[in-house]
């Protein structure tokens, strides 16, 4: 049932192009409009919502962090993202005009379930983004947008994450569509880019051998740091989480702009630091800032592992290892930038002799608070 792969995780990483395509299937019409009738929340509620609050745990939380950038950029509706386990304990401000989005692969995560119950008690409408048909979280929500990743067996989430991102983009674009905000050429271009993205994920998968080799060469390291900016920051957090749960290594993700506020003190000779570089097109200011960060950490001895768009030559002189990803619009970059980090963590786990599909102390769905 592992389809010829050694681990479910490898199989699920390889299934990502299809999972992404399946999650888009039937949801965008030929004219480039979104047809999300399955979101049974009345359009009037979506139009009048004055705030979006996303609740989720772990990898799903990272998808939520990325969704915030898309939702606020495309709809101009304020969006908060909160760890489900913290949410109800701080007495959050919720009302009938709050749209809550609960993201969960399993649909059974107790922390997320308790957060959504709390939100509904306060009168908020809850939309679930979920991969498991008929599970508890969608059953208790007002509406659900299913991700079509297929069953995910490995404890470490991979294909579910990519499809959660796709679902979040769809919700953000749909909100923009029904609210009439910024509905123009940019959005149509994004929809076209989304339709092509599964091929780009496939391209990334085809070029992963050097990443595996690199991972094996780092098997005896204690720490790996991850840096990113904008949507690359949650990607860095996700890269670090994957490494913790699979390789049992100390791994941390930082917003690159925070380096100078403390974390740069951690940099020492030969410390591996993975840097997710934003596209040089689009938000080029951020691109240039992160290139300076790479120079700074390298000057202090870091071994720089740089993930950058094809054609971005500015990073070449400062990259000890360069991992190329296809050019995408800034907001969609996590769909391609996360894949090498999954492969990296999986290979490090194998090199360290760890159980890939069933890491110690972890369960696939966490049904206790
Ligand atoms: O089933 P869920 O999406 O609600 O699970 C949330 C987290 O427990 C999950 O993403 C966890 O962090 C993964 N093991 C990460 O790979």
Describe the structure.
By secondary structure, this protein is an alpha/beta fold. It has 13 helices and ten strands. The strands form two sheets. The chain has a five-stranded parallel beta sheet, with helices on both faces. It has a five-stranded parallel beta sheet with strand order 7-6-8-9-10, with helices on both faces. The longest helix is centred in the middle third of the chain and has 21 residues, at 159-179. The model has no long low-confidence stretch (mean pLDDT 95).
Helical element count?
13
> Sheet bearing the most strands, described?
5 strands, parallel
* Adjacency order of strands in the biggest sheet: 2-1-3-4-5
Low-confidence stretches: none
Radius of gyration: 20 Å
Alpha carbon gap, first and last residue:
32 Å
Q: Taking all residues together, what is the mean pLDDT? A: 95
Bound molecules: 5-amino-5-deoxy-1-O-phosphono-D-mannitol
Give the DSSP E fraction (strand runs of 2 or more residues): 15-25%
Structural class: alpha/beta
Which descriptor suits the 3D outline?
globular
Percent range of helical residues: 40-55%
SS elements, strand count? 10
N-to-C order of helices and strands: HHHEHEHEHEHEHHHEHEEHEEH
